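Honest question from a wet-lab person: if I give you the sequences of every part of a complex, can you actually get the arrangement of the whole thing, not just the pieces? Trying it with mine:
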Amino acid sequence: TRPKPRVGPLSFPDGFVWGCATASYQIEGAVKEDGRGETNWDVFSHTPGCVANGDTGDTACDSYHRYGEDIALLKQLGVKAYRLSIAWSRIFPEGRGTPNAKGVDYYNRVIDALLAAGITPYVTTFHWDLPQALPGGWQSRDTALAFADYAGFIAGKLSDRVTHFITVNELRCFTDLGHQDGKHAPGLRLDARSVNQVRHHGVLAHGLGVQAIRAHARSGTQIGIADNSNFYVPVIETPEHIAAAKVAVREENAMFLTAIMEGRYTERYLTSIGADAPKIASGDMAAIGSPLDFVALNVYAPNYVKASASPAGYEVLPHLKSSPRMASPWLYVGPEVAYWAVRTVSELWKPKALYISENGTSADDPVVNGHVDDADRIMYLRNYLTEFQRATEEGYPLKGYFLWSLMDNFEWADGYTLRFGLHHVDFVTQKRTPKLSAAWYRELIRRNTLV
Ligand code: GBH
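Yes, you can. This is the full assembly:
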């Protein structure tokens, strides 16, 4: 089937959920307040040499105290939804054991304020800030069990008001980047077998988390995952390359999203890791494959793929020096990945609903006369959203889009050197200033049509 020619305005479906996203450690600050326990990112960011400039999340955007101001910004934008994450260590300072009422109170206040502003909260239960007290961290199977207990507990507390829960954010980042590449907390470079075990605990935590949230939440609660799978664009839109892109999505994410959607590891993955396979307890794969109400995708950089005569059937093309990028070295620009991420995931696994849980870009964002005129961010967003619109027009079940991010924040190993916000944050005064892209996004939401 040939794509329809694009004529007329690029409108989104009625009721499309426009939102913004953030994460606890990147915005909250107040790391020692109201009984919050220490996390792996507190330790990592305070270890010299781990984060650019020695930056930490100690203060970040101070959203722990300024959430009211942040919600006012969301209201100004006209968003219908806000994706936030809960800091596990505010709820269970030791990761497990006795819950901390003050931590629960904080999120109750945030959620009540969002609802009062007419904004639907989408709650992520884990966006990388892991309680440091859990022995062995993600190397330990017990961490997956502790996560499920915590997720079930918080669902029980919030699901009278929260209708959408996301278990974990980006499996590949908190497993591989932290335990294989040493670039994120806890900064380890483990052997292949240990990394595969960490990956298994990651998907297991997700699966047990789904079951625990389901058991403690009101019926009808929607549960999903936010994953940054590697997504593939067929280099030419012909049947052979499209087929290659689908195989690539399935095999390159075999240890993460594919395991979750299919409840098993692919033969090719198991063969490729051989003796380095993780220990898998009976019942694990069924838990990992627990049915989801939606799948959410974080979509940024593209990968281009072509069909090949190799045993895999596809070949991933390398990024080149001439490939366009935004301010982050990894953020190659390829708007078509937006369409192909939605299409390949839809065709492979037929999820009931899809969301884009993150999309956005870093940019230089110079402040000139008190303004940030970020035409490059608007260019990036317009082009990616044109491709998401195509996916909705062709009938793929894309229900909403969360822009990363509401405001500049702690960009992990890059500290405060890279800005992703629709709002500029002065990290000395904490003043938030809308960039030009905020006005652009507000107009898009108002018209439900790309302008
Ligand atoms: C998301 O990750 C995160 O969910 C969010 O918290 C973050 O702020 C946002 O994107 C912007 O980065 O160091 O060269 O190995 C996006 C996917 C994958 C991007 C890992 C950074 C590290 C590249 N991330 N990648 S490198």
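Two things worth pointing out. The first strand starts at residue 17 and ends at 21. Residues 23, 26, 169-170, 173, 177, 183, 228, 298, 300, 330, 358, 404, 411, 420 surround GBH (CB under 6 Å).
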